[in-house]
Amino acid sequence: MRKLKFDRKLVAAVAALTFASTLFTIYVVDAHLVAAYSIYQDQEGKIWWRTFPAGSLFPWPRESGMLQILIEPDEIDLFIYTYLIKTWLLAGVSALTWVCTGIYIFKAVRPNLPKPPSSNNNS
Predict the structure, then answer these.
(1) Do the domain assignments include residue 118?
(2) Residue 31: inside a domain
């Protein structure tokens, strides 16, 4: 039986990337859910929190309160909603982190994959 060899730095990078990708994906899903249920855009294009107290999209998404009143979001939440959530940029970056994680996993495993037989035809 062949002993598997892994580069310790590469394994640490894979673990860190997997953890970061998982955490970021959870943030993205939670931010999209909070935005879908707690943010309202009126006919003029102005963005509001649906209820009071206002929710938040940073540092971690939090739904707004129970009192039915429109509240203006702060600049950070407005930026995140307008440029990152509505454009699906956050979801794209999340997918890109998983692509990078997959590449690093392949780089870590590749030295341990069986080599294809060489075709040395001496005819």
Answers:
(1) no
(2) yes
Handedness of CA 19, 83, 55, 39 (dihedral sign): negative
Our CA dihedral for 89, 91, 92, 95, rounded to 10 degrees, sits at 160
75 within some domain: yes
Q: Where are the alpha helices (DSSP H) in 39-111?
A: 75-79, 89-109
State both tokens at 13. 């990078």
DSSP H or E segment with residue 26: helix 8-38
53: left (phi over 0), alpha (psi -120 to 50) or beta: beta
Q: Which of 28, 8, 30, 9 is nearest to 20 (CA)?
A: 28
Domain of residue 45 covers 8-111
β-strands 47-52, 67-71 pairing: antiparallel
pLDDT at 75: 96
pLDDT digits (tens, 9 = 90+) for 81-110: 999 999 999 999 999 999 999 998 998 888
For 58, the token pair is 């940073």
